[in-house]
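hiii, so i know i said id send this last week but things got crazy w the move. better late than never?? heres the sequnce for the chain we talked about at the cafe, plus the structure i predicted for it. fair warning i was half asleep when i ran it
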Amino acid sequence: MIWVIFAIAVWAGAYYLNHLLANSRASGTRAVKLAVPAIFGITLLVVWEGLVRGLGVPSVILPPPSAIAVKFSTSLPTLWVDFVQTFVKGALTGYIMGCGAAVAIAILIDRSPFLQKGLMPVGNFIAALPIIGTAPILVMWFGFDWHSKAAVVVVMVFFPMLVNTVQGLAATDTMQRDQMATWSASYWQSLIKLRLPAAMPAIFNGLKIATTLALIGAIVAEFFGSPIKGMGFRISTEVGRLGLDMVWAEITVAALAGSAFYGIVALIEKGVTFWHPSQRG
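okay and structure toks below
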């Protein structure tokens, strides 16, 4: 009962502190913008710890954060091997291949009305296929190593990236395109100097969406067959052994990797599309 009271007290104190920070004169500063979510996240962990211990929740149902932290610290070599297998080899490789191919195909679609009318509906149909159905097929086609996981990631990120890029290439208005025609610009000159720069906000929107899809696709694909390493393999194995602390350690690695990946893409976007209204201070 003491743990439950402690958790409630921490929650109330953190709520009051965040309320003061959010309504203070310094609420617009970078320090406060970082402090508020940090306090909120730490509060969630403390409340989680208090409620699990206070209510006597079995570790096979929900382990406390302290147990997850201990497992994380003692399993760093295994977690690193799983991270390299799933994220670096599977997710990142598939992300680069899928997004690169989507941009190239989008340029072809932009030049061909036939592809616009024929390929886009097919792409939307394939994008709607559940990964649970396509992942086992791709694993059988490409084998149980990281190559099949990269293939699943390619399928998952290709069409969202394609749709965003096609929409971005159509973002310029008639007056801008007429101006390029007045200057006798070729299609490729117009594409490089006008349309691709104008499409960058939409392209980066697709890239950011693909960061989360890539990691999810690689992890789910490993449920259907993989070597004895990888986040998905470890999660499915440890669930069968009721090792929920290791499962949560893998989830932590996936969350950190996904957040860092998204942040890096968003940081690059800020530098490339500094001119766009969404990036202005």
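btw The chain is about 80% helix and 0% strand. thought thatd interest u
miss u guys!!
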